[in-house]
What does this fold into?
Amino acid sequence: MSRIDAFLKLGMAQGCSDIHLAVGVPPMLRLHGDLMPIKFRDLGDQELEGYVEEILTDSQKDRFRRGEDIDFSYVSGEGGRFRVNVYHKATGVGATFRNIPSQIPSLDSLGLPPVIQKFCDLHQGMVLVTGSTGTGKSTTLAAMIDHINTTSNCNIISLEDPIEFVHNSKRSQIVQRELGTHIPSFAEGVRASLREDPDVILVGELRDGETISMAMTAAETGHLVLGTLHTTSAVKSVDRIIDALPADQREQTKSFLAHSLHAVITQNLIKTPDGRGRRAVVEVLVMNRAIAKLIMTEQTHQIPANLQTGKDVGMQLMDQALLNAIQAKQVDPDDAYRFANDRKKFERFVTDTTVLPSGVSVG
It folds into this structure.
């Protein structure tokens, strides 16, 4: 068993989402969104480098010694599965371990809106799950893939960096491919998958124009493409795709979005009222004629008004979703306030007045 497994075991026992190891500070655990040190000495450079090298393959060691960051999945001696990033920083080595639950959650257990299940039943086009790092995008996508796997006879090809949740084929066949291990890039992975008779293609990250272009081709040619972006709203997600491609493809890209983008799910993780967990709260865009017209005429700034009035088809703004979650006592209002866009609407719910701007009082 690797020496690093002792820290990972402690993190799993505490129910932490992440374990951070870095030179010059003690190991740290992220619990319900907060980072806290454990009672241990500050880690030394050679000590931590030794811990890390115990779990790297020879090729990973060579790349790491050349100064590259390394992303990979790791199964500890205790059986826990982790997404790992190891890196160099000013004072030495660092590593972050994201705990991947062994059980794939259902859409219901995540408390996601019912409309998301409908997106899983689509047969072609694109659905985006977006949010900043650590907002649960991978978990939502895993639940969506599991729903398809349980209810449909499909060939599902998942392109990931690295592989996180491990899916067993049920009614569907699931092929999981890892960046750097099975495919050289997401774009090449999508290109290859089109020759592998896919019904559903999951693209772990639409990180560049080439990948976006290949994903668009897949979505337009009769496949359901699920993808992620590191964007924090539906509008920013649409704008990111338009801006990622060359200017001479702008009209073509807008046309694709208007006709083949079915939905954008943007999520945040908000603390529960007891502070012992976090809950996904989502903004949902469902494509309709009005939003398609706004995209074609480059008036995406008006999309939020459509989300606000599209409740009957499952649409909601992030602020609406946060307010609903507060009123249902599902989330901590102080934490929800931090993620709100129009914070004035949330001030009356805040219990910790220190989070408010100076001069604002509650009551």
Summary: The chain has a mean pLDDT of 95.
